[in-house]
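Hi,

I'm pasting everything inline rather than attaching a file, because the server keeps stripping attachments. The sequence lines come first, and each chain or strand is labelled.
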Amino acid sequence: MSERLRLLAEVLVGYSAGVEPGDLVVVQGTTNVEPLLDELYAAVLRAGGMPSLRATLELDDVLLGEGSDEQASWVSPADREDIEQADVWIVVDAPSNTKALTGISPEREALQQRARRDLRERYLERALRGELRWVLTAYPTQAAAQDAEMSLAQYEEFLYEGALLDDGDPVARWRAFAAEMKRVADFLNSKRELRIVAEDTDLTLAFGGRTWIPSEGRENFPDGEVFTAPLETGVNGEIRFTYPAVFRGRQVDDVRLRFEEGKVVEATAARAQDFLEEMISVDEGASRVGELAFGLNDAIQVFTRNILFDEKIGGTVHLALGSAYPECGGTNRSALHWDMICDLRSGSEVYADGELVYRDGRFLAV
Amino acid sequence: MRDQRVARLGELIVDYSLGLEPGKVLRIDAPPVATPLAVEVYRSALAAGAHPYVHVEPERLPELLLAEGSDEQLDFVSPIAKAELEAVDAIVTVWSDSNTRALSRVDPDRHQRLIASTQQLAKRRWERMSSGELGWCGVLFPTDAHAQDAEMSLAEYERFVFRACHVEEPGDPVAHWRSVREELAARARALSEARELRIVGPGTDLKVGVEGRRWKPADGRYNMPDGEVYTSPLETVTEGEISFAFPALFHGREVDGIRLRFDGGQVAAAEAGRGREYLAAMLELDEGASRLGEVAFGLNYEIDRFTQNTLFDEKIGGTMHVALGSSFEDLGGQNRSVLHWDLVCDLRAEGEVFADGELVWRAGRFLEQPQPAVEHV
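And the predicted assembly:
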């Protein structure tokens, strides 16, 4: 375990974040991932960077349960300064209980999301200008294994396989995979519109003029998708998401959305529909699609209730409600960014500008 | 399950030590092992209407930095940490170790370099504290490592710590510390009238000049637990000798059986058992290291034994301590040094202290209660 953890840290620091001597590197995570934080700290030092560790406790349940609205909307100077000053921001997201916030009212949750919107916009802005490189990663915890319905040992295997750390030279493997993703992105960049057809799904998304970007293990790790920001008013039709939509530990089952001119006009769910509705109404941008993406990582095959992995499953497509990535040309702004996944591995077709280009989870001609 | 003693301690720090007001920004610094106390301080701060956040420092970081870091990395002070220090209204530092000797074998020069680099932020923190802009309290959270140093089980040590903070039993610890504050303030006022103290005990007969110096109560606002009154003595007056019954600890190093002889305020002879060379090296650090920067009475009678932790040892009820090195400017002290090393002298069995020739303290107790503050006004 500790040797693989060290390898994970080396790849995150050397390949994903590309830490250079003198970089101010914020390493953020909760204390339950301390072994990885320690390895990242050491790896940053070896790379000549200046590590600034931001270890925190999992206190949102206390804050949202016991604090006032004003306290719940407060953003600490630590959060602001990290985003303002870091050259590199490495975030390990791995709660020790993924359902700790289930008992919090959706309104309170929405309040906190809104309060943090400036932070999100600020780091996206700095990233767009090339001032900040960020990478989000995971850590094998019992909570994550439990959500994935695996033992911890099985989950560790799953994580390291998905991260291409299980065999050979991981950086070489990521470079090869990146070349493959770039071909898909180039292909999609020559198109203007996609139509996705699957069970209870017939959705058209226009993206002419926007950029598809291959996600090569720099900002997410593990990784493996190509993504864009569809036109804000160019989404029409309906989609049924195969997997439960999970946001901050809250699970919404069987989400179905109907769009007209880019906006959600109908949203239903088999479970937690109130939470879905609350999130969609967080702000104006929350009811529009900020991201459209294809999952391309074939080393990730099963749903594990962790979006970092699920959205990369080879043979899936996902949409995110809420904020768009400006580097794609997206203009939608929101405190929300909620990814929802549709499995296309059987009985599905995708048309690009009217031509069949993808069937049953595979691009036909790329 | 919540330990109610820890909950009471968190509340005591927020309500009494810091007196935290609504809207104030509180940063709680703690290692992972002190999470239960960090959470309780956080909760109490929320209840007080403040804006708390917790900054956790994993314990291995200094070791990793010393092992892997270049000189430039050792010297680096994060601009983020600097900005945060300006942005907060109060800081709670929770001291707690899983291993109090984890850095005993690191390269001493590199360690000094790292300490010097962390001093930059510490200096700025003191500036903001002195000007009243920043509240601060340091508190210990009990662990097996501290219990091991104290030669106790963890359960025994927890009782020891929580008794010293007056949170072991349900009750009103804030009221207790308020009365301690009054009593120590009165004691400090009385001592501020003395010109000279003579301390007599086993291997000890020392005269210390304190004329014109102000005595200050340490009443739980900056440390928890607390309980002492202290001043900075005149720099050129200390005469005689003093023996320290307890081993003296400094940065994880231990020196046993220290005896010092003073002449004209300066150490003229120093003896010790184990660690004699270290003592000699410390005395030679600079001009001020061989003079006293502090003299104090330990007055927390819940602390009744030596536990190899200065936070507690210097407050043992019935002891006195002196510190070699830097003095307190705000009390009139003029001694400057990079050193401030507290040495504890046990006077509980047969000690006597005379103030201007009059016996004021015997066997670890002041003979008379000081005048209450109201009659003083």
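The radius of gyration of chain B is 21 Å.

If the labels don't parse on your end, tell me and I'll reformat.
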